[in-house]
Amino acid sequence: MLKSLINVKLFSLLLFSLSVLAQGSKNGVTYDGRSLIINGRRMLLFSGSIHYPRSTPDMWPDLIQKAKHGGINVIQTYVFWNLHEPVEGKYVFEERYDVVKFIKIVQEHGLYVTLRIGPFIEAEWNFGGFPYWLREVKNITFRSNNEPFKYHMERFSRMIVKKMKKEKLFASQGGPIILSQIENEYNSIQEAYHQNGVEYVQWAGKMAVGLDTGVPWIMCKQRDAPDPIINSCNGRNCGDTFDGPNSPDKPALWTENWTAQYRVFGDPPSQRSAEDLAFSVARFFSKNGSHVNYYMYHGGTNFGRTASAFAMTRYYDEAPLDEYGLFKEPKWGHIRDLHSALRLCRKALLWGIPSVSSLGDDLEARVYQIPGSKICSAFLTNNRSREEVNVHFRHRKYFLPPHSISILPDCKTVVFNTAKVNAQHNARSYEVSNSANKGTQWEKYQEETPKPEEVDTKSNHFLEHMNMTKDTTDYVWHTIYFDVGYNDLPTRGDIRPVLQISCLGHALHAFVNDVYIGSGHGTKIDKSFSFAEPAPLVSGRNKISILVMTVGLPDNGAYLEHRVAGLHTVIIQGLNSGAHDLSQETWGYEVGMKGEKLKIYSSKGLKNVQWSDAKHSINHPITWYKKVFDAPSGKEPVALDLSSMGKGQVWINGESIGRYWVSYLTPLGDPSQSMYHVPRAFLKPKDNVMVVFEETGGNPYLITVRKVSRDTICSYITEAHPPSVSSWERKEAKIQAKESEDLQAEASLKCYNHKVIHSIEFASFGNPQGICGNFTMGTCNSPSARTIVEKACLGKTSCVIPISPSSFGGDPCPGDAKTLAVQARCGPKIHDA
User: What is the mean pLDDT of the chain?
Assistant: First the structure.
């Protein structure tokens, strides 16, 4: 026992000595087994993923400022190869693609950057970030010990690093970039390449280190990451699933903590509670973690055709900042408060000796203490999913809700519990803009199915889809004439031949004799599918036209360069002479829609076709619609309600806001997405041109322009809650003097964007039920609740209401814990005339 104590003290002294030496180093970023060391300083790092092309440059400062306000000190982003080099050797770094500008804005806000160069990124991004031309390089095998691939990968990586160095953006040059990533989650496919996979990882690591950035490199989910590259964790619960770095000299880093789940068309809503997210982070830091990144902190929008196969246009809308950049509460506020609590533990976490002790089954205390000092922090964990417990720790009693961690920065006082949300809640609303929706004049341009004799390409076997489009369009027409004898058609009027198609993905629309007969599609999991619909054939010559499309290219998996898509078989069933297989007959092909080629969504291209009144042309397939509208008043984000449409794309003043697919319903019977973001940067004050390409048929007259807000704010706090943690600096002095149960719980409300509380829509002190936007009275309620809340809050930017019976003139439910539920509405300040 004595020997063990001596070893602990020696270890502590050694750690302290090494740390002092590390702190003395002032040149860039180093690391050891405990943390990154930035300019000689150990830090707890709270990172958030914000991808520059998924928002607009005018949004970047606000997103970064909100992240900083939420306790984030690092911004993480991928580098998107296919955006920056769409044509081999020709680079694009302007507007939304200006990664240098994005990083400099992060730097201006005093935050660090993690640059995930990849250059394979996955990210639910088209082709995993690879440019399509890379697929056509002779003898190439992606992500393998393959010379053509390694040549192009190194060339792009070197170009990006050189660009960053030129702008002095690495921390070793005084810039904000403290980490870079090479490759991405390669372990998941490495075995498919056998020894070539092993050698590729080693090569990639050596190549990256040789770029001499002066900052560490990481490989996420890469167990055999070569030294000195740090292998990091991705997932929801890295505190319990991560085996740790592959060397004791490397810190535990978490590069992707999924704040929800990315969604594909057809998915129901995805959620991850603020409580579960906070638990995962507290758990990781309690087990030697020092860096976490929220993927995503702001997801944003997949503009244009950038989304990967079946991925929705809206990306990670359930992140702390939603698609529009608005606070998603209580998630944003709850993890902000968590960051404040963890910062109070900084000295103990980064310098202390860890220990763990059991408090019972699935109960434990993890302690960090600097020997010989009072610096001590503890994490009390209840891993029981449904049972709340009281535990004893260091001669004190603590209450732990189910699946929760209490943080004690001084090993005495609970300042935060992951299951107790003190942050306010909010609800998003979409207000129809009167100015933007005045007038209903729509015009249309009707695409026609191509004539087989007029197409440029013909073949007696089906051509592969991606090889034809080269990722310049989603669409390829397949068209053919064939004859049907009079005696081949069924004689009964209620029986018709059937057009039967099998397709390797992703979707199609079928026309017989220029009549639309239906659509079919696969799924994210199984992209191949079958289609069968009655065909209105006539005796003599018939025309079949099939519009086949991808919905984004795949973004992951081994041998990505060999993926294929397109038609497999086309058969006419139900003829008197038997099935007629058209698969091996001569088909004509036309790549893309005429409207795309003529760019009729752009200001110049609008004049390339004759538009006509769309009044009597609703619900027509393969139709383009056009309308002019004014921008909504105010500064709120803008969205289009496309509930009345089917599937297609939308452009605003020539800018694509992405694919829509309202007709693809979730298992709940609703569209995965019906509201589509229109950045304010895409709009002019007057005369904005909206162009809609509808594939299957919809009603454009019901499209509405809406303003988006989260002005409905709520607080739902029980009197047994721990104290508010929204102003840690003010409370930090109380930690040594007061225990948590002595500090009174309080509800707080705050409006953002210079707005004030206009109205109290609901207030109850008792046992109210429901969620923000849908509260109801319980069986008991203080009759003075609304009056008291209105007096405290109306006309103010923020307000705080103590939660106790004395604050509400008495106890409405003696013997029961009381809850205060408040729902308020924010609005602009009303100035005197």
Answer: 93
Over residues 100-128, mean pLDDT = 98
Q: Tell me how far CA of residue 689 lies from CA of 324, 597, 619, 621, in angstroms.
A: 21, 18, 21, 21
Residue 506 has pLDDT above 80, yes or no: yes
Let me know if 425 is exposed, middle or buried by CB neighbors in 10 A (0-12, 13-18, 19+).
buried
* CATH homologous superfamily, domain 23-344: Glycosidases (3.20.20.80)
Task: Please state the rounded mean pLDDT for residues 109-126.
Answer: 98
- Mean pLDDT confidence for 58-77: 98
- Using DSSP, how many helices (H) and how many strands (E) does the chain show? 17, 44
Q: Are 365 and 357 in contact (CB under 8 A)?
A: yes
User: So what's the pLDDT on residue 26?
Assistant: 64
- Neighbouring CB atoms inside 10 A of 108's CB total 12
Q: Mean of the pLDDT values across residues 183-189? A: 97
Determine contact, residues 15/37, Cβ cutoff 8 Å. Answer: no
Q: Of 595, 705, 590, 687, which Cα lies nearest the Cα of 648?
A: 595
User: Which homologous superfamily is 452-592 in?
Assistant: Galactose-binding domain-like (2.60.120.260)
- Angle formed at CA 618 by CA 617 and CA 622, multiple of 5 degrees: 85
This prediction has a pTM of 0.94
What number of residues does the chain have? Answer: 833
pLDDT of residue 353: 97
Given a cut of 70, whether residue 402 has pLDDT beyond it is yes
Shared fold status for 23-344 and 744-827: no
Encode pLDDT of 709-761 as tens digits: 999 999 999 875 443 344 443 344 344 334 333 345 789 999 998 899 999 99
Among 380, 386, 378, 420, CA closest to 403: 386
Place 10 in a pLDDT band, splitting at 50, 70 and 90: very low
In one-letter notation, the amino acid at residue 114 is T
Task: Give the single-character DSSP code of 683.
Answer: -
Active site residues: 185, 256
CATH of domain 430-445+597-708: 2.60.120.260
Residue spans per domain, the chain = 23-344, 430-445+597-708, 452-592, 744-827
Residue 14: predicted pLDDT: 43
pLDDT at 18: 44
Listed in sequence order, the residues at least 6 apart from 391 whose beta carbon sits closer than 8 Å to its beta carbon are 359, 360, 363, 365, 380, 382, 397, 398, 400
Question: For residues 147 and 326, is the Cβ–Cβ distance under 8 A?
Answer: no
Check residue 492 and give its pLDDT.
76
How many whole angstroms separate alpha carbon 679 and alpha carbon 814? 52
Question: Is domain 744-827 in CATH 2.60.120.740, yes or no?
Answer: yes
CA distance 710 to 714: 11
What whole-number distance in Å separates Cα of residue 535 and Cα of residue 488?
13
Query: Could you tell me the two tokens for 720?
Result: 């047994």
